[in-house]
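User: My collaborator sent over this chain with a note saying "see what the structure looks like." That's all I know about it. Can you take a look?
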Amino acid sequence: MYRWLAALARVHRPDPDGRVHIAGRAIYVLPTRYGLLFLVLVLALLVGAINYANNPAFLVTFALAGAGLATLVQTWRNLRGLQLRLVGDQPDFAGGTVGFRFRVASDRPVDRPAIQLQWADLSGVPRATDLPGGEGAVVLLRRAAGTRGRCPAGRLLVSTRYPLGIIQAWCYLEFDAWVPVYPRPAPQAVPPAHPSGGLGTGSRVTGTEDFAGLRTYRPGDPLRRIDWKALAAERGLHTRTFASGGGEPLWLDWAAWPELGVEARLSLLSRAVVDAHLSGRRYGLRLPAVEIAPGSGETHRRTCLTALAVYGEAP
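Assistant: Without extra context I'll predict from the sequence alone. Here is the result:
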């Protein structure tokens, strides 16, 4: 609603500490469609009261008009003084949905019901929250990830129709932040173009890994890792898994597929990062002008995938 005002509206931006404080002068207020019907009703009552000189009709008209004005002020006050901060994000692969986490709080210990957040372009699903007694809340907003790269947070629309729904107050916030959109992983890993390239130093180290246990067989598992003894004992088809020991780490190298284009290489490296993370191996990533030291864990996975996401983009 009121999308035509977005281009001309005043926009709040974060302070140096990353927090946005909503001031009263930047809040826009207009009646909703129900508010317009309410206004028509009051005007009709006023015309009837004047025409018939009916004192009870005047009383009802002025009471409704006063309630409407009080609602307008209350709706405006429900937004004034809100504080928002971007506190986290949820990256995703290309074609998925990324998320931004906003913490919403009040500068006063008062209830603030029915606060709604959504993107200014009205994409995605709006999220509503109640802030009782000055408490804060974290709201997750999602949007389509699109292609790989940086997905900016963009402009945020904060609105409310509390308490009666006849008045809408809203304002626009803009955060200078982005979330990485990872390259979509290839359907399956593809061997390198030539044996010397491999996936990097350590890709063929097998004697320095420690046995970690068994898991259910998955199509594509190497035959040499199938537990044939368990199959012979009729315990089902299982694959032996290994944890990386003290041997050399696995290197995921851009140069392993010289015959492929940029996006195809990024897709294969994305698959390699996902597979290495799931297997628990220590791995590093080599890209032109970028090298990420071997590591493991969720933070290392995100660092590698982010490097793939922003490859070729200006910093």
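A starting point for your reply to your collaborator: The chain has five helices and 16 strands.
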